[in-house]
Specification:
Chain lengths: 351, 351, 351
């Protein structure tokens, strides 16, 4: 179940210093690694731990290697970015042991006659696939998933168990959707007549690019008239809500519990910390980074790091500060009054 | 797949100015509309776009029509509230093309003998319906839904795929529950004995009125002893959590990610922005509007708009302001000290 | 369907004052209780309601009983902690009427040959259990659940309908997982190479202790290399997100919508109010209580109550205070300037 160091380096690159025939069985953090593991040094502050590691081989940068080489007895794989190399090496080891679901349609799946399922795709137990849906080559649809009418799932995309993917939505290649995610539910659109809500039919789709990951129990609404768009390489964590007609640019990542209201337009290469919220109809340009627990209530037109949450304190201290926050305009008025008095005094003294 | 303008107006009202025999195929925003579309002008600021629209017909208010009539060559439907009319027209077009699921029980559904399913109801693939449940006429239960023992689903109510509706809960007529929603799970009720939690059985129900929409992955807990109540016309977006024994008044709407803790009593015609939170056992009167990301920590006994979130800033600026917020009482003390000094000085000068 | 008071007290303890042969059918709040109900007085402020209660018997503390005995005609059960006793009595009544699902595997369940299901376990309709999974004695797996490869479910643990429990994860004895919860999804782990995310395989597990309750639509990510750990007696409400490699100490409770980012280490006997958020890689010691809507952005190394949310206000007032919060450093500078002027003046006067 392992591999030779040489085989790994042949596949992933990097400069191997040590025995190419050494057998390694997996990857582990510096302090947990055993003698058959590879480990990695992605943070120079951990050099001391690296020297103590029992790992058979270390993934290191050239800068760190100068230091490590002297004191570490194992093999080294010298690479440009040890953390990226670690990710690829971990993928390599996982591929050695992962159980790839067999192609074919489980006997308990309910697949409409007009659906097109590629021969190499795996359709799990209890899956339901409705009319006209298309499942690409090597796609994996886990047990209990629902694929609506005319939905399209691209090549090599994997749905874990119990995903709901509504009618006419589409996702590209090599995507992952985790369990409990719901893609393509109706957006929250109503007209209000005398206090009573009249539903606006949501007839757009959700259109998702390639290499997109969507977390567990995340929800993405279909567009009202136009589509909700998720571009290539977007990574969404669990419990995220994306409203109708949003547009999320390529390679943007959102941590758990983020909410984005309808028609927000978010740029490429952005990041959103956990539970960040974005109001509707805003524009956020490329390379904006919003901190956890922060509410974006206006468009952000300049790249950079933005934050806005109330600092945590002992409850008694918070109560004191919160009372003052509530009355900050009174405090401002007091300062203005003081400034005025001082000014008058000063003028009197000078006159 | 389209309709004549005259047929639309006959059904929905409004004053048609133009050719009643014109064929239209759907509805689209002003700038996207093609020559076979209807569009609508619900915001007078968009008058210029309306004049440029290629739409075959425009839905306009009388006030806007005075302006539009002069410069727009297509037909006009003059109505009181163009946005409400748009919603109804969109429903009209959707009804022309929507695939209404056929009545009957799918062969793979598991329906208890003692359950009563109306003949006109649709029960999808893999649905499970337990003992004594009642499914009303024209109800649609999507694939993979679970309907617990003695639950009741009203006439014309639709569940999308993979809804969980627990024992003894009920929903009225014409409701919609989206995928992944869980209704009637146990409330979070425990007694604590020496640090260890003892579960309090949750034996109430969730009782939902007519015309209620519930979003994807939203959860509503059953009551502990009494019931959790959702009145008529309530609209809940995705990812909302409603605790046990809450009471939500008619025609109240909540945007995504809202949380309401147990036993909160919320009035009618309220609105809650995304990720607003309400603590337990509070009372909120009718017509209260709570902004996104705001925490309601006390009862609100006066209608109006309420807000409370930390304003977003560039991270460096936020760090500065957050440090001061944390120490606002020190700032207040400094101001008091200054006031005292000034007061003493002034008194000295005057004496 | 009821019980004799004597039988209840024999089972649960407490001192009965009154007729042991009295038949009671259930438990109800003071004001709702009818003549066949037991009620409870857990808050001395409700003594007046207790005296008016129609309940056949009251659960009271010794302190309250001195007061109640004089004016209340029904039976009393005098106990140390009436609320805990209420919880146990409610469990007792529920057990009398609860429909215990029958042992056995439903005909529509898909159970791998290599899975081991205890004979006393109940496996509901449409359940999927994959290779090598182990289901303990008296476990109840509700309809539509998915149990991944080599997962382990302990004795007496109950999954409500539509739970997803991924490969190799485990939960101990007497646990409850509510509908829509997803346990063991991949953590949100990526290396970033030139703006593009490279997935880090998540090969750890979720390991859950005994007596753990997990709410509806809650998600817990599996560890990246090591495991995510949930210790005994933890209670998680609905819509919670726990990131990969978190460690949550025994008997900690979290209310709805809480989010905990990856690798956070949380102590025992902590509580988290609704929508509280914890950043990644933090440490929180035992007996920390975090208020609702509060963001924990640093480690908490001292037990106590912590809070941090922006106080709600009428929108117009919030707008005023928010503008000032944004510019607090300007206000601080003004105060400093005033202090300096005053200081100079005072020095001048004294010189």
């Amino acid at each position: 179940m392992g591999t030779r160091l040489g085989a790994l380096v042949e596949r992933l690159g990097g400069e191997l210093v040590g025995d190419a025939n050494l057998e390694v069985t997996g990857i582990a953090p510096l302090t947990d690694a055993g003698v058959s593991h590879i480990s990695f040094l992605s943070n120079s502050k951990l050099r001391a731990e690296a020297l103590q590691s029992k790992a058979a081989a270390l993934i290191v940068s050239a800068a760190d290697d100068a230091f490590i080489a002297a004191g570490y007895g194992g093999a080294r794989i010298v690479v440009k970015n040890p953390y990226v190399y670690f990710a690829r090496a971990a993928q390599y080891f996982e591929a050695l042991t992962a159980l790839r679901p067999a192609p074919g349609v489980h006997a308990t799946a309910v697949v409409a006659d007009s659906a097109r399922v590629a021969p190499s795709a795996h359709i799990g137990a209890r899956v339901v696939i409705e009319d006209g849906a298309v499942i690409g080559e090597d796609a994996v649809i886990g047990a209990g998933c629902f694929i609506g009418r005319e939905a399209e799932i691209g090549e090599g995309t994997q749905f874990f168990a119990n995903v709901t993917f509504q009618a006419r939505c589409r996702i590209g290649k090599r995507g992952i959707i985790h369990s409990g995610a719901v893609i393509g539910t109706d957006g929250f659109g109503f007209a209000n007549e005398g206090g009573v809500y009249i539903k606006i039919p949501q007839v757009g789709r959700v259109v998702i690019g390639d290499d997109v990951d969507i977390g567990a129990n995340t929800t993405i609404d279909r567009g009202a008239l136009a589509d909700t768009i998720i571009e290539d390489g977007v990574k969404l964590d669990n419990q995220i809500q994306i409203g109708h007609n949003c547009h999320i640019g390529a390679h943007t990542a959102m941590a758990g519990c983020v909410g984005v209201a309808g028609s927000a337009k978010i740029g490429k290469y952005c990041t959103f910390g956990g539970a960040a919220m974005v109001l509707g109809h805003l524009t956020i340009v490329d390379k904006v980074h919003v901190g956890s627990g922060s509410m974006v209530s206006r468009s952000i037109l300049e790249p950079g790091q933005y934050t806005g949450f109330y600092p945590l304190a002992k409850n008694a201290d918070w109560e004191k500060s919160a009372v003052i926050v509530r009355n900050l305009s009174a405090m401002r008025d007091k300062i203005r009054a003081l400034e005025k008095i001082i000014k008058t005094k000063t003028e009197n003294e000078e006159s």
